[in-house]
Amino acid sequence: MLEILKRRLRTGTVTTGYPSVPESAPPGFRGKPQLLSDKCTYCGECVSACPPGVISLKEGNSEKELTLSYCGCIFCGRCEEVCSYGAVKLTQEYELASKTKDDLQTIIRRKL
Ligand code: SF4
Ligand code: SF4
Questions:
Q1: How many Cβ atoms sit within 10 Å of the Cβ of residue 40?
Q2: What is the reported pLDDT for 13?
Q3: pLDDT value, residue 69
Q4: Is there an atom of ligand 1 within 6 Å of 83 CB?
Q5: Average pLDDT estimate for 40-67
Q6: Of the candidates 19, 21, 46, the residue with the CA atom closest to the CA atom of residue 35
Q7: Which of these, 62, 49, 45, 72, lies nearest to 109 by C-alpha position?
Q8: Cis peptide before 19 (omega within 30 of 0)
Q9: What architecture is domain 27-111?
Q10: Which DSSP category does 8 fall into?
């Protein structure tokens, strides 16, 4: 018993304080994709490239709307790769828990 206690004291604390203490994602981590409205041209390349089809483009008479839903996103990064305008960036954000589905999407719009 004493030996176990000594070993435990030598080891110290190996767990982190998350979620009370915020934890950053490691370099290269692919987190929540972000749409940048000032750069987007609404070309639709990311819509065609997204494997689970969670990005959609709507064109009305007065505006274009690009929606990215985090429900079903597999964080593959294809949208970022195919966007020639740098209008999609995968962030380091990984906390996606939400009480409503509406919070799990990001929408950008442009008036025509
Ligand atoms: S995010 Fe990029 S690829 Fe997607 S519609 Fe906008 S400009 Fe095109
Ligand atoms: S990271 Fe992959 S799955 Fe998620 S929106 Fe982009 S292309 Fe689609």
A1: 20
A2: 84
A3: 97
A4: yes
A5: 97
A6: 46
A7: 62
A8: yes
A9: 2-Layer Sandwich (3.30)
A10: H
Nearest ligand to the CA atom of 88: 1
> What's the one-letter identity of residue 7?
R
Distance CA 7, CA 93 (A): 36
Q: Break the chain into its structural domains and give their ranges.
A: 27-111
Q: Which atom of ligand 2 is nearest to the CA of 72?
A: 3
pLDDT at residue 55 greater than cutoff 90:
yes
Whether 31 has a pLDDT exceeding 90, the answer reads yes
Measured from the CA of 69, which atom of ligand 2 is nearest? 5
Instruction: Tell me which residue has its CA closest to atom 2 in ligand 1.
Output: 83
DSSP symbols for 47-92: HHH-TT--EEEEE-SSEEEEEEESTT-----HHHHH-TT--EEE-S
Output the pTM of the full model.
Answer: 0.88
